[in-house]
């Protein structure tokens, strides 16, 4: 029978006339029984024309004249059941059937709709084919049911909306399988659900995510975002981050994935559960999130709010998935604020990381977790899909934002009352500039990885860098980025010729330093790009003839940088290529087509252009002399040509008898004198070029033929003659003239520089092996010393005589006493820095004098004894080394030497200086003391420079200092540091033993302690070596008594630094506070019955003030860490971590409160020391107020903290302020004498600090009252609101003043009655005069407030009078 129904309905479809079709359809439906129709429904659904047949059935039922109760409902139920149970229905047919049913659902009654909804709900709860298309009918009938006014349910009637709420509740309690999550979410997004219920659904659905397969996540995220449109926008992100982190951890860390260099291509073959599948699922999910935000989803704005609330907690945001989402959203124009927030997060993370080593408490709060943000960025970049990906665009924006940073910001709280305390944790502590440089490095590294991953992006990136170089003045970070790109991706950079050409043509407007770095960065490309090289060549030739002196220096630097990258190939000199170069940079080898002959011709042309620079100003020549040796070290084949050029130029200033013609080096134009030839630098350029080329065999030649054609031999011969002549001469042989004249001073400076250059030449040649050369070296040093003494005497002579008397303002000089004026115009002299011995020469000399040197031959013992007797010469070389390493700490460069060479020379110098300090048992005179202190300072700067700029070579340096030339492989760095620490601890023990004078100890303690701090920062704070150093320092401060504050300060600073870095709760701060109080004295010491003594001998009445300074700085740093930890309350998700953070904060604040309560008990007079205590109290109470505002429930630790603050600190602080006020009363009105005049007393700074402190205490008390109201617990502990103000009313003083005023008033009344008439007459006269004046000059009134006592004229009369 069912087949007959389907056949009849199919025939009706063949009828063309619609009216006839409807009539036949109606007749057919009316003839069928209820059972026949219901039995035919399954066959109709599975037939070929199912949608059309069902349409006919539904139309016939809706228009049927027969009364058939709920037949339409039963048919729909049968259709839904068939669609749900059978998967044989084609998808397109199912869609059409559902659409037809939704159109006819309007004909159903409210109760029928409810039954239909309950049927669908039962199928959903049973999990029947939820991925089928039948499920899309549920939202349609659900929305239709919600519009109904009345639904009958078990003899009760409810509205449709109420009935739908019950359905929603049933859905909320339904267990959903992982396979049905997407379909279920798609249904929910179509329903009208209250926000509170949406939250439950979102949590329920997010709980399914961990059980999903990667390919199921993106469609689920797509549907879930629609569901989260009204609320809970960010909840899915949190669960997705955990999901992808868990999945990727099964296949190793993301870094291992990125190291394979595999890109995520959509069309590649993917294995189920493979890392590629996971990464692709993550990328697709992020794409859905980004598209949703781009189309107006509230997720974007909520994500910005989320980042702003987490700026102070970067470790919770900088996780891979959240970071990728942030980068993707930040690429959208409407959400660019996200990039700025990411930059702040990176800055805060770097700032926290640099403080992490110096604070054990911070490491405890971080659970030892340290994020390598650069490594994370590299991983995300390697997982990028294409250049147009939003994540890649966000990376580019973030990189340029990091490069634009100027100030890295502070640590802890952004704005806090109280002193601004910097990071003085150690002498080697990183500064804010270090964080800025780290941000620049990360930005440059991101751009470098982008070019590696997507080479086609190189032109656009370089163009943007070039544009920023045009616009900003501080361009070092952009130049560094370009240099890195050229060094690591030279082939990609060849496609950026237009941008580099633009940079070349803008060189005229750059400074010398920037131009040198930029040329050094892009010059390797000249070998492969002829067009770029020709452009550079034309620009430099133009700049060489510029009218500006600095521009010509830029041209010289440019030519020299080009020469570094073009080998001057000569067939006969091929073997010289293997010689060791000590350059600071390695040549970037780019494939090139130039032959050796073309390179040789090009280099010859460049040398000719450089020879033109020798006729330029002295600064241009100096630039050539200082940079030419580095070029020769990179290109040794240029040595003969360079020496020939310099030697021919040197001959102009040396007469045939090898006498220096100093007059030719100075020019005098009227009253102006200038240096036209830095002769010392010229001589040193020759010597350094030969030395750094690696061809040191030239110095070993004893007899050189004057007729030799070897230019290097001739250059050495010429300098040897000058050395011999100048060593035999004296200062009087050079006619410099009156030393008070500027020209004479310039001559002396030139001669002194020549002596230094010649002394450097003597060491490079054979001064340590030849007695004659050694004596010449000493003679040159003595002559240089004499020249310097002449300059110092000339400087002293300038200050002699009395200055002319100043005339009073408004008076002219009388005729008898004409004014004294200097008719000579004063113009600044152009003075260049003198030469300094090269690092290699210093290493040779100091290493030769090393105590216990076993490599000295017998014939050299005489030279060694001779040099050791020259304490002045040794001190000079040590001071020169100290100056170079000071520059090394700041500039990361010494004479352009390579890291290997700097390590070699530094090891020799450090070993010799350390042995000298260890073997110096008694300092006899001032020179020996200066030598000892200079050696210690030099050692400190050497170790500091290596820790900052070259930490990879620190182990080798320390091994060399221990005289271990070839350290065994595998020796831990901590063992080497421990050995070096032992040396410096022995030096400090010997200094503090009492055998040395205090002046020496004062100067020597600071570098030793600084070195101990620098080395301790390289140790593990939780290790045994660190604990041993901390205990040793504590015992040292306990047993050594010193009265000099400059000795006590570094010792206490070291003790506090080590304790704070190794102990989570630095108890030493409380101990130091107590020691300071005992040393200074207690306020109520007369009433005190207990007597205590100091436990630390270093702290006494002479050193208490400086210890107080150190202590307040350390306590302020601990407060800053508290401020850093405050945002972590309530947001750290690791079980019961939040109460642990609160308890930890309360414990540290209690420590600060106890230490501060000890300080306010000290008998401190008003002044800088009391100001430190008051500012520290301001910071403490401000932080306490912030902590109190975060309290939701009162923990026992917080109650203890508030109690200790109220009963001990606040009470004692009020007494301390009263003590300061009482002390100031005696000083008020007392005038200080300055010469013959009396000067009013200076304004006390406490007058500003006390009101600020009062305000901070009041804010804290209000916060405590707020906590008490919220928690219904009394936290006042008897304390009252602050009553201390910036003024106090003293009753006794007021009464005395009132009595005095009463007596004076009676006497005044009697005198006024006697002379009343005279007063009235005088008043009338004054009034007439005032009226007359007011008509002419306007009314005069007294200004109140600021500027009191001054009068201003107002009125119209003042504007007309001229």
Largest sheet properties:
2 strands, antiparallel
Put simply, the count of helices is 57
Q: Strand arrangement, largest sheet?
A: 1-2
Radius of gyration (CA) equals 44 Å
Choose one word for the global shape. globular
Poorly predicted spans = 253-271, 413-432, 570-594, 799-830, 1229-1234, 1236-1241, 1319-1362
Arithmetic mean of pLDDT: 79
The helicity comes to 55-70%
Strand content: under 5%
Structure description:
It contains 57 helices and eight strands. It is mostly helical. Among the domains are: 253-265 and 308-410 and 432-453, no CATH class; 653-797 and 830-835, no CATH class. Strands 1-2 form a two-stranded antiparallel ribbon. The chain has a two-stranded antiparallel sheet with strand order 3-4. A two-stranded antiparallel ribbon has the order 5-6. Helix 37 runs antiparallel to helix 38.
Give a nutshell description of this structure:
The protein is mostly helical and 1362 residues long. Helix content is 63%, strand content 2%.
């Amino acid at each position: 029978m069912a087949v007959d129904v389907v056949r009849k309905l199919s025939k009706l479809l063949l009828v063309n006339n619609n009216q006839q079709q409807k009539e036949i359809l109606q007749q057919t439906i009316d003839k069928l029984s209820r059972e026949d129709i219901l039995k035919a429904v399954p066959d109709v659904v599975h037939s070929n024309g199912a949608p059309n047949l069902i349409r006919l059935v539904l139309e016939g039922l809706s228009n049927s004249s027969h009364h058939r109760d709920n037949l339409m409902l039963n048919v729909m139920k049968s259709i839904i059941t068939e669609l749900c149970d059978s998967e044989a229905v084609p998808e397109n047919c199912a869609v059409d059937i559902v659409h037809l049913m939704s159109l006819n659902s309007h004909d159903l009654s409210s109760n029928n709709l409810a039954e239909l909804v309950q049927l669908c709900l039962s199928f959903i709860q049973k999990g029947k084919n939820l991925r089928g298309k039948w499920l899309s009918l549920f939202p349609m009938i659900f929305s239709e049911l919600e519009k109904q006014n009345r639904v009958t349910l078990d003899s009760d009637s409810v509205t449709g909306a109420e009935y739908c709420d019950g359905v929603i509740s049933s859905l909320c309690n339904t267990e959903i399988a992982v396979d049905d999550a997407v379909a279920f979410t798609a249904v929910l997004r179509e329903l009208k659900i209250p926000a509170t219920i949406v939250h439950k659904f979102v949590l329920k659905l997010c709980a399914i995510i961990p059980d999903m397969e990667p390919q199921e996540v993106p469609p689920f995220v797509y549907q879930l975002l629609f569901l989260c449109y009204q609320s809970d926008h960010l909840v899915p992100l949190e669960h997705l981050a955990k999901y992808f982190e868990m999945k990727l951890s099964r296949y190793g860390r993301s870094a291992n994935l990125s190291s394979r260099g595999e890109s995520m291509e959509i069309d590649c073959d993917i294995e189920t559960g493979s890392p590629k599948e996971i990464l692709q699922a993550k990328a697709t999910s992020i794409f859905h999130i980004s598209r949703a935000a781009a189309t107006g989803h509230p997720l974007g704005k909520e994500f910005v709010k989320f980042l702003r609330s987490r700026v102070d907690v970067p470790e919770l945001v900088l996780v891979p998935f959240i970071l990728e989402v942030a980068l993707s959203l930040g690429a959208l124009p409407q959400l660019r604020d996200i990039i700025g927030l990411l930059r702040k997060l990176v800055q805060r993370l770097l700032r926290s990381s640099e403080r992490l080593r110096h604070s054990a408490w911070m490491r405890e709060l971080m659970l030892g977790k340290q994020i390598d943000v650069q490594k994370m960025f590299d991983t995300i970049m390697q997982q990028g899909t294409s250049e147009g990906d939003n994540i890649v665009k966000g990376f580019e924006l973030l990189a340029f934002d990091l490069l634009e940073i100027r100030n890295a910001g502070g640590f802890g709280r952004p704005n806090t009352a109280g002193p601004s305390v910097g990071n003085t944790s150690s002498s080697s502590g990183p500064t804010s500039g270090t964080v800025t440089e780290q941000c620049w490095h990360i930005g440059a590294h991101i751009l470098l990885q982008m070019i590696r991953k997507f080479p086609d992006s190189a032109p656009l990136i370089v163009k943007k860098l070039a544009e920023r170089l045009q616009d900003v003045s501080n361009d070092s970070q952009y130049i560094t980025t370009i240099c890195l790109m050229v060094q690591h991706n030279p082939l990609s950079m060849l496609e950026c010729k237009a941008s580099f050409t633009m940079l070349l043509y803008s060189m005229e407007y750059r400074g010398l330093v920037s131009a040198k770095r930029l040329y050094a960065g892009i010059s390797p490309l000249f070998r492969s790009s002829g067009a770029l090289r020709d452009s550079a060549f034309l620009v430099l030739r133009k700049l060489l003839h510029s009218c500006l002196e600095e521009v010509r220096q830029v041209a010289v630097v440019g030519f020299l940088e080009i020469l570094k990258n073009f080998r001057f190939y000569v067939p006969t000199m091929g073997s010289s290529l293997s010689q060791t170069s000590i350059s600071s940079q390695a040549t970037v080898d780019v494939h090139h087509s130039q032959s050796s002959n073309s390179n040789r011709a090009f280099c010859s042309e460049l040398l000719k252009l450089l020879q033109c620079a020798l006729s330029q100003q002295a600064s241009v020549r100096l630039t050539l002399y200082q940079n030419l040796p580095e070029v020769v070290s990179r290109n040794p084949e240029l040595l003969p040509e360079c020496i020939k050029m310099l030697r021919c130029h040197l001959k102009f200033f040396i007469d045939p008898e090898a006498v220096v013609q100093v007059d030719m080096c100075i020019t005098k134009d009227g009253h102006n004198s200038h240096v036209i030839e830095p002769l010392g630098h010229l001589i040193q350029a020759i010597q350094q070029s030969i030395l750094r080329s690696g061809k040191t065999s030239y110095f070993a030649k004893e007899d050189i033929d004057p007729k030799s054609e070897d230019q290097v031999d001739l250059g050495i011969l010429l300098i040897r003659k000058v050395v011999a002549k100048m060593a035999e001469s004296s200062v009087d042989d050079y006619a410099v003239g009156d030393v008070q004249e500027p020209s004479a001073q310039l001559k002396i400076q030139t001669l002194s520089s020549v002596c230094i250059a010649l002394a450097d030449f003597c060491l490079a040649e054979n001064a340590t092996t030849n007695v004659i050369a050694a004596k010449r070296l000493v003679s040159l040093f003595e002559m240089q010393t004499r020249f310097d003494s002449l300059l110092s005497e000339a400087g002293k002579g300038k200050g002699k005589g009395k200055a002319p008397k100043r005339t009073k303002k408004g008076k002219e000089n009388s005729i008898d006493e004409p004014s004294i004026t200097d008719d000579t115009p004063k113009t600044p002299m152009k003075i260049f820095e003198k030469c300094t011995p090269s690092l290699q020469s210093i290493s040779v000399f100091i290493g030769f004098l090393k105590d216990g040197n076993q490599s000295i031959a017998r014939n050299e013992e005489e030279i060694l004894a001779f040099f050791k007797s020259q304490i002045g010469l040794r001190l000079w070389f040590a001071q020169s080394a100290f100056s170079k390493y000071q520059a090394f700490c700041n500039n990361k460069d010494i004479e352009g030497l390579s890291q290997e060479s700097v390590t070699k020379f530094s090891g020799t110098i450090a070993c010799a200086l350390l042995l000298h300090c260890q073997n110096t048992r008694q300092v006899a005179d001032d020179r020996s003391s200066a030598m000892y202190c200079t050696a210690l300072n030099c050692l400190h700067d050497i170790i500091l420079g290596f820790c900052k700029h070259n930490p990879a070579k620190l182990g080798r340096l320390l091994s060399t200092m221990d005289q271990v030339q070839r350290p065994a492989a595998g020796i831990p760095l901590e063992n080497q540091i421990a050995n070096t620490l032992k040396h410096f601890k022995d030096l400090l023990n010997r200094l503090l033993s009492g055998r040395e004078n205090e002046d020496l100890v004062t100067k020597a303690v600071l570098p030793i302690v600084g070195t101990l701090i620098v080395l301790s920062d390289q140790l593990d704070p939780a290790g045994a070596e660190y604990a041993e150093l901390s205990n040793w320092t504590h015992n040292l401060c306990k047993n050594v008594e010193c009265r000099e504050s400059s000795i006590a300060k570094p010792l206490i600073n070291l003790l506090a630094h080590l304790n704070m870095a190794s102990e989570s709760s630095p108890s030493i701060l409380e101990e130091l506070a107590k020691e300071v109080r005992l040393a200074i004295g207690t306020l109520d010491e007369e009433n005190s019955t207990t007597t205590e003594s100091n436990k630390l001998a270093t702290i006494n009445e002479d050193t208490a003030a400086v210890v107080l300074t150190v202590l307040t700085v350390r306590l302020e740093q601990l407060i800053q860490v508290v401020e850093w930890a405050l945002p972590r309350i309530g947001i750290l998700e690791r079980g019961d971590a939040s109460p642990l953070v609160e308890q930890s904060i309360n414990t540290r604040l209690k420590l600060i409160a106890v230490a501060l309560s000890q300080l306010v008990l000290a008998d401190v007079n008003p002044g800088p020391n009391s100001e430190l205590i008051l500012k520290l109290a301001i910071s403490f109470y401000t932080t306490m107020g912030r902590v109190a505002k975060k309290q939701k429930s009162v923990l026992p630790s917080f109650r203890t903290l508030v109690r200790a603050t109220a009963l001990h600190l606040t009470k004692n602080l009020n007494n301390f302020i009263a003590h300061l006020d009482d002390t100031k009363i005696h000083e008020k009105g007392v005038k200080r004498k300055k010469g013959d005049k009396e000067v009013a007393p200076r304004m006390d700074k406490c007058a500003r600090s006390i009101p600020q402190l009062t305000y901070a205490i009041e804010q804290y008390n209000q916060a405590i009252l707020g906590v008490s109201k919220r928690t219904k617990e009394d936290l006042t502990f008897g304390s009252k609101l602050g009553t201390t103000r910036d003024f106090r009313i003293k009753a006794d003083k007021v009464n005395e003043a009132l009595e005095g005023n009463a007596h004076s008033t009676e006497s005044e009344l009697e005198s006024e009655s006697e002379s009343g008439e005279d007063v009235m007459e005088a008043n009338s006269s004054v009034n007439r005069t005032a009226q007359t004046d007011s008509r002419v000059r306007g009314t005069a009134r007294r200004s109140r407030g600021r500027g009191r006592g001054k009068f201003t004229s107002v009125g119209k009369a003042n504007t007309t009078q001229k």
